[in-house]
Amino acid sequence: MKSVAIFCGARSGRKDAYQQAAEALVDSLLEQGITIVYGGGNVGLMGAIADRALASGGRVVGVIPHALVDKEQAHENLSELIHVNDMHERKQKMSELADGFITLSGGAGSMDELFQEIAHRQVGYHAKPCAILNTAGYYDHLVAWLENAVNEGFITQYWYDQLVIDQSPVELVNRLMGTRL
């Protein structure tokens, strides 16, 4: 695995644990020599992961739509910043650049990105691993929903088991690195 796309919020959330976990995740990825691909912003968890990686000498590729450059305060100090036309093109480019996907705490955009990659894996568009970092129980309700979808027959146990879900950034990276593409 050479690169991982990180989906996360343009806000930091109310708990310090979200940024601490994001930074610990970045540290673990950089120890493996992984390039970070993300939404290109300079604010919230997006800015935190980019700043942490850059401060440690990591390679960071941002992908940001033209319309969000000012709104998200595009990070100008990245290894590479790719401007795209819209959110659809952003997701497509991030997917092309990444060998796997990790979702941190975030909002609707993070969920959109996560579920697109899960769905694309299910239908065979790619075989890249998808992971969820469940910091401070942030995704407990989502995990419960996924388990209910399995119990109700809308998602197979096989596809649920393909998700890497962990509360520890270090363990999540270890498990992600152990998956086969």
What does this structure look like?
This protein is α/β, with parallel strands linked by helices. The protein has one domain: 3-Layer(aba) Sandwich (Rossmann fold), CATH 3.40.50. Helix content is 45%, strand content 17%. The protein is built from seven helices and seven strands; from the N terminus they run E-H-E-H-E-E-H-E-H-E-H-H-E-H. Helix 1 links the parallel strand 1 (3-7) and strand 2 (35-38). Helix 1 (16-31) runs parallel beside helix 7 (169-177). The longest helix is centred in the first third of the chain and has 16 residues, at 16-31. The relative contact order is 0.17.
Query: What integer is the average pLDDT?
Result: 95
Oligomer, anyone? single chain
- Strand content bin: 15-25%
CA radius of gyration is 15 Å
Helix segment count?
A: 7
Fraction in helix: 40-55%
**CATH fold name, please?**
Rossmann fold
Which stretches of 5+ consecutive residues score pLDDT under 50? Answer: none
Which labels suit this protein?
seven-stranded parallel beta sheet; 7 helices; Rossmann fold
In brief, what are we looking at here?
This protein is an alpha/beta fold.
How would the blueprint of this fold be written?
Blueprint: E1 3-7, H1 16-31, E2 35-38, H2 44-55, E3 60-65, E4 80-84, H3 87-97, E5 101-103, H4 108-122, E6 130-133, H5 140-151, H6 157-162, E7 164-166, H7 169-177
Parallel strand pairs: 1-2, 1-5, 2-3, 3-4, 5-6, 6-7
